[in-house]
Amino acid sequence: MDKQLSIKNHRVAIVQAELGPPNPRAPEPYFWMRKSMIWNMPEPCAREMLCSNCGHYWKTKFIDDCMKKYEQVTPPEVDPAWVDTGDSGGYCDLWEIPCTATRTCNDWEPGGPITDAKAKSGEYDDEEEDG
Fold first, then answer.
1. 118 Cβ contact partners less than 8 Å away, ≥ 6 residues apart
2. What is the mean pLDDT of residues 102-130?
3. What is the mean pLDDT of the chain?
4. C-beta separation of 84 from 75 below 8 A
5. d(CA 25, CA 41)
6. Per-residue model confidence as pLDDT tens digits over 79-89
7. Phi then psi for 128, rounded to 5 degrees?
8. Which single residue of 5, 25, 102, 112 could bond 57 by disulfide (Cβ 3.0 to 4.6 Å)?
C-alpha cells in the first residue's frame, strides 16, 4: 500500500469514524464511553468490538505477508499521539488502511475477521471488495 495514501485514509477514518483509541494499551475511558453511547451498549461490550473481529478486517496469509514489509502497521505520520502497538495488523477494506487489531471505529460490523478460509468459501459480504 502507498504510504501517503495510508496516512491520508487513516486521518480520514480518525475524523469521520472516530478510529481509535490512539493508544490501545491505555485504558482510554472517554473513548470507550463514547463508543458505548454510539453503539447503545454497556462499555465492557463496546470494548470487545475491535478491528480483530470486525467484518471489514482482513487477516489472511496475503495480508500477513504484506504487513511483514513494514516496521509499523500505522505510519507514525498519522498523528503524533498515535501509538503503534507492535502487534500484527490486518487490512480494513472499508477505510482501505492497514489496521491494528486492538483498535475500532464507528463502522464496526460483526463477522470478522475475514480469513483465508472465509475468503475461499465466500462467507463474507464482498460487495466492497475488488476481488
1. 124
2. 79
3. 86
4. no
5. 22
6. 777 777 777 78
7. -85, -15
8. 112
* CA–CA distance, 50 with 20 (Å, rounded to integer): 10
- CA 90, 92, 97, 101 torsion: positive or negative? negative
Are 114 and 108 in contact by the 8 Å Cβ rule? The answer is: no
Residue 127 pLDDT = 46
Mind listing the pLDDT tens digit for each residue in 15-67? Answer: 999 999 998 999 999 999 999 999 999 999 999 999 999 999 999 999 888 88
pTM of the entire predicted model: 0.84
**Secondary structure, 3-state, 27-61:** CCHHHHHHHHHHHCCCHHHHCCCCHHHCCCEECCH
3-state secondary structure string, the chain?
Answer: CCHHHHHHHHHHHHHHHCCECCCCCCCCHHHHHHHHHHHCCCHHHHCCCCHHHCCCEECCHHHHHHHCCCCCCCCHHHCCCCCCCCCCEEEECCCCEEEECCCECCCCCCCCCECHHHHHHCCCCCCCCCC
